[in-house]
Amino acid sequence: MSVIHATAVVAQGASIGSDVRIGPWCSIGRNVTIGDGAELVSHVVVDGRTRIGAGARLFPFCTVGLAPQDLKYKGEDTLCEVGARTVVREHVTIHRGTVTGSGATRVGADCLLMAVVHVAHDCELGDGVIIANNVVMGGHVTIGDGAVIGGAAALHQFVRIGRGAMIGGVSGVEGDVIPFGSVIGNRARLAGLNLVRLKRLGLPRAEIHRLRAAFRLLFRGEGVFAARVEAVRSEYGADALVAEVLAFVEAPSRRGLIRVTVDADAGDDDAG
Fold first, then answer.
1. Residue 91 and residue 109: Cα distance in Å, rounded?
2. Of the candidates 92, 95, 123, 127, which has an alpha carbon nearest to the alpha carbon of residue 111?
3. Are 43 and 115 part of one and the same domain?
4. Is residue 109 located within the same domain as residue 237?
5. Which of 47, 110, 122, 268 does the annotation list as catalytic?
6. Is the dihedral of CA 42, 48, 53, 54 positive or negative?
7. The domain containing residue 56 runs over which residues?
8. Which candidate in 53, 139, 146, 267 is catalytic?
9. Is 151 left (phi over 0), alpha (psi -120 to 50) or beta?
10. Is the model's pTM score more than 0.85?
């Protein structure tokens, strides 16, 4: 049996799963679906065509599925999704998508969005993503599985953050970050690889060493970048991690890649 507090307002038409807990002063719109075992602690607003995954937890004063902050938005029927077991902490805002974008904002499963995070319209967050306090992102941002975004970072619209990447706190990110890349600074620069994440994935040391060698050749080698891409492909392209990075580098992008700067000469040895 679900437990809905007497002060909560659940609109007719909302779909509430089993074992759902909806606390005091929550407001649930008519097009909302809440999965089994989810919990809305108190003072949570969920509206629009929004799906909350099974076992998700939403903390006080967060809002999910409200209209985007986009002057072109005219009330179209767009989507917002929060994945299973994801935790959304206090004062987080997750806005629904737009028809000029993908039409949906999606947060994956097993994510943690700490207090005062803003997930803008048409953003796509993978599974296991951790977003620290006060992070803001523009529309259409893509974040790969297992990425970690440090506190107070700002992600420009259309930026792509690769799988397992690490964004340092208070970093302004204006370009794409390669899978397992580690960026720091304002404006953010590529400092190396996120070795902590690579080790936590249990990858063999040989694979990590090949990725580091490919990284050095790609971002610190001589010659034009396109030639270095081909050199990496020729020498390390059969490695799955390297192939993932090359596919990311060559995918269409609105923002371009963040590169290593001249003062980041040893970052991949200790970047975490």
1. 20
2. 127
3. yes
4. no
5. 122
6. positive
7. 3-140
8. 139
9. beta
10. yes
121 is catalytic: yes
| 200: CB partners within 8 A, 6+ apart | none
pLDDT digits (tens, 9 = 90+) for 132-164: 999 999 999 999 999 999 999 999 999 999 999
Judge if 132 and 206 occupy the same domain: no
Q: Which of 43, 95, 121, 140 is catalytic?
A: 121
**Cβ–Cβ contacts within 10 Å for residue 244, how many?**
18
Residue 122 among the catalytic residues: yes
Express each pLDDT in 22-40 by its tens digit: 999 999 999 999 999 999 9
CA pseudo-torsion sign 246, 213, 159, 76: positive
CA 271 to mean position of chain CA atoms? 20
In a domain, 180, yes or no: no
In a 10 Å sphere around its CB, with 0-12 CB exposed, 13-18 middle and 19+ buried, how is residue 227 labelled? exposed
Residue showing tokens 């759902």: 20
268 part of the active site? no
